[in-house]
Write a structure and sequence with these properties.
heterotrimer; A mainly alpha (236); B mainly beta (108); C alpha/beta (428); A: 236 residues; mainly alpha; Cytochrome Bc1 Complex, Chain D, domain 2; 11 helices; B: 108 residues; mainly beta; Immunoglobulin-like; 4-stranded antiparallel β-sheet; 0% helix
């Protein structure tokens, strides 16, 4: 399945970049590197905003400019200040996100190797040009990955309870959504939030503090937190 | 490195001929000669290779130490003395240094 | 869900009725005349600032909150060791109370609380005047026990600093370490349990060693310690051997570390009867609850203030809550993280009692990060629950020896993120 998709992408890349030395960029490697991004981002046919905005047609896009994604104030300000995503600016952002856009919600410490960044960006270029024949977007996280009963995702959390429970979270995760050594958890789609906490509770995502915290949360409490944290910090 | 510091703990007083516990320790990194430092350089062997305790000028206990002994070697033993006297403790370093400490043992 | 404690479910009307009934017996109905219930918080550190902020923020002006704190700028004790180690600028540890007043309408009074009249429910201030309260939150931190280290008292703190309340003492200690002669000796007299920040003295040792390794590599570090064991001991001792081999000697009770006297004039430390000349002597005395807790009459013979875990109420007075280091609460370590966690439970209980807002089950957690060397961070954490008897540990985790350099670096970077988050949660 993955191999077939990669083949399609390589073809897309060749078509999109006939003169850009597509053969030198390893699209399959770019796709593999994208696994670091896919917990938050989607690209491809049907791609939606999840924890992060979708990445179709990102080249040439002004930073923070998609009307239906709730960007951090920092990202919107960067766009207003003239930041446009090009090969060069995306490369700089991937290398060290806060160096280019301080206080954004992008929870990624950076991709150190220039050839990794080049491969990832070459792969992402295949999702440009408003193409209609893109492969389907891969989901950010699915309940099936963790054997979650769909009924768990259907629980409607109590945001007031979530606001109280969140007190335990924001001792470490900044309430203003800024990333600094610890990921941002504001403005998340509730499904992604619920799946992430269940993944910690099951020990399938590994972090001792998060496994401890999630291990004590009931399904209802996780839903309450998800209801609370779907707000972004500057939502009314 | 800092000069090694020897330390000895004796009971405040002992009875003639009755065994008592002696605790000793010296600060020393006990480099085995097989480990690398953070720059990847091999740290040369440097250990305390011998420990000797004398009572009244006679050797009471002598121990040869090997590189496997951990840092800050701690040695505890029991001994008995017939009367008050001077205990002398010596630790011998690979580089030839000898660190000494003297303690008076008081028999009631 | 709001049955977690006896007070929590009380409606605002219920509270007013009971307070009005009380006024027939007591003579201080001052609060009711004002209309809004009043909360006075004493101490603007991790416990007090959090409690004040959460009560004000979450009650939508229904509660009048006054924070009493003598300092205009608060310097965090947590991370102050990193200043000593040169990893942190002093200014980065300072925080103002401006946002608490501006964003949340908290009345910040820069004064010392010097008395508590529990019958009249009022707090006396050093500058004269008093503050009436319906609920009093005491988060006064620690004070030192007189005579715990023979030869040392507060009058000697400039010769032998404690540096265990962040401020000029911290800066003094760093200056003394920098001025040590080559090959000199830094000595720490470590405190007995219980004390603020259990890994704190040993993180400090790591930071002092880090500085001396660069500027004074033949210097020695001597710890006189009355305790058999200490927090994260295996992690610290492993790190000390890796980063600072041969530099650090800890004299525990087996070698007389519990039998210590200091001679500030001579700059000597006497361990088990043997005097050693030292160049810097960092005396961290035995501790007890900040003085105002004893003045309020809510401490026991231990010197700390017993509390009811579900609400952080004093066991001696249901109108007083005690947070953080000063509280005798059970299993939580005395840390800024713990105080922040307890303050949120307290804030919810206080709001519930005064305004009838929903009271959810209490939750407590703590994580303590420590830095051993450059990019070598470790952590220990646990979650806790309220039982009738105490705040009881449920489960926990601790870093392991032999972890990869990448994980240790990530742990350190995580601690930087925590610092930014918790200080925002306190003062934002």
């Amino acid at each position: 399945m993955a191999r077939a998709a990669a083949g399609l992408l390589a073809a897309a890349l060749l078509a999109a970049l006939p003169a850009a030395g597509a053969g030198s960029a390893d699209a399959e490697r770019g796709h593999a590197l994208f696994q670091q991004c896919k917990r938050c981002h989607q690209a491809g046919a049907g791609a939606e905003h999840r924890i992060g905005p979708h990445l179709n047609d990102v080249f040439g896009r002004t930073a923070g400019s998609l009307a239906d994604y709730r960007y951090s104030a920092a990202m919107k300000a960067a766009g207003a200040g003239g930041l446009v995503w090009t090969g060069a600016t995306l490369d700089a952002f991937l290398a060290d996100p806060p160096a280019l856009v301080p206080h954004s919600r992008m929870s990624f410490s950076g991709m150190a190797a220039a050839d990794d960044r080049a491969a990832l960006l070459a792969w992402l270029r295949g999702f440009g040009g408003g193409r209609s024949d893109l492969p389907s977007a891969e989901p950010t996280a699915t309940p099936e990955e963790y054997g979650l009963d769909p009924a768990i995702l259907a629980i409607r959390g109590d945001p007031e309870y979530g606001a109280y429970l969140a007190g335990e979270c924001i001792t470490c995760h900044r309430a203003d959504g800024t990333v600094e050594g610890i990921p941002s958890i504001t403005g998340w789609p509730p499904d992604d939030f619920v799946i992430a906490l269940h993944a910690y509770r099951q020990g399938k995502r590994v972090h001792p503090a998060m496994q401890l915290v999630a291990g004590r949360l009931s399904d209802e409490e996780i839903a309450a937190l998800a209801a609370h944290f779907q707000r972004a910090e500057d939502d009314p | 490195m800092a000069e090694p510091t020897p330390r000895v703990k004796l009971p405040k007083s002992v009875e003639a001929g009755v065994p008592f516990t002696v605790k000793t320790r010296i600060t020393h990194p006990m480099h085995t000669g097989e480990r690398h430092d953070s720059d990847g350089e091999l740290v040369p062997r440097r250990i305390i290779n011998r420990f000797v305790v004398s009572y009244g000028g006679e050797v009471a206990i002598a121990v040869d130490l090997e590189p496997a002994v951990s840092a800050d070697p701690y040695i505890q033993f029991e001994m008995a003395v017939p009367e008050s006297g001077l205990l002398e403790f010596q630790w011998v370093d690979d580089d030839g240094s000898v660190y000494s400490l003297q303690k008076h043992v008081d028999v009631d | 869900m709001n049955k977690s404690n006896g007070k929590g479910g009380l409606s605002r009307r219920g509270f007013l009725a009971s307070a009005a009934a009380a006024t027939t017996a007591l003579s201080a109905p001052a609060v009711l005349a004002e209309g809004r219930p009043r909360v006075v918080v004493v101490g603007g550190g991790a416990g007090g600032a959090t409690a004040a902020r959460y009560i004000a923020k979450d009650s939508d002006d229904a509660v009048d909150v006054t924070l009493v704190e003598p300092s205009r700028a608060y310097y965090t004790c947590f991370f102050s060791n990193l200043y000593i180690g040169g990893f942190r600028e002093w200014a980065s540890l300072g925080h103002s109370y401006g946002a608490l007043a501006a964003n949340h309408g908290i009345n910040v009074v820069h004064d010392w609380a010097v008395s508590v009249d529990r019958d009249k429910r009022s707090v006396g201030l050093a500058g004269g005047g008093s503050l009436a309260y319906d609920r009093l939150v005491l988060s006064p931190g620690i004070d030192f026990r007189d005579g715990s280290v023979p030869g040392w008292d507060l009058s000697q703190q400039n010769r032998m600093p404690h540096a265990y309340k962040a401020g000029s003492q911290t800066q003094l200690l760093r200056a003394q370490i920098e001025a040590m002669p080559q090959g000199g000796t830094y000595c720490m007299v470590a405190p007995p349990n219980p004390f603020r920040c259990p890994p704190g003295p040993y993180e400090r040792i790591s930071m002092v060693a880090h500085v001396l390794k660069q500027s004074n590599p033949t210097a020695k570090i001597l710890i006189a310690d009355p305790k058999e064991k200490f927090s994260k001991q295996g992690l610290f001792e492993d790190g000390w051997q890796r980063h600072y081999p041969g530099m650090i000697e800890r004299v525990g009770p087996d070698f007389g570390g519990g039998n210590v006297e200091v001679r500030p004039e001579a700059m000597e430390v006497v361990i088990d009867g043997e005097a050693t000349k030292v160049d810097v002597c960092n005396v961290i005395p035995a501790q007890q609850a900040g003085r105002i807790a004893a003045l309020a009459g809510i401490t026991d013979e231990s010197g700390w203030a017993p509390i009811v875990p579900h609400t952080m109420e004093s066991r001696a007075d249901a109108n007083i809550h005690v947070l953080g280091d000063a509280a005798l609460q059970g299993d939580m370590p005395k840390s800024g993280f713990s105080a922040n966690s307890q303050a949120k439970v307290c804030a919810m209980a206080v709001r519930g009692a005064l305004t009838g807002s929903t009271v959810f089950p209490p939750r407590f957690s703590n994580t303590c990060w420590s830095l051993i060397g450059t990019d070598d961070g470790v952590k220990v954490g646990a979650s806790y629950e309220a039982t009738d008897e105490k705040i009881a540990k449920i489960d926990g985790f601790i870093s392991q020896t032999g972890e990869s350099a990448e994980l240790r670096k990530a742990t350190y970077e995580e601690s930087l993120g925590w610092y930014a988050a918790i200080t925002g949660d306190l003062f934002g």
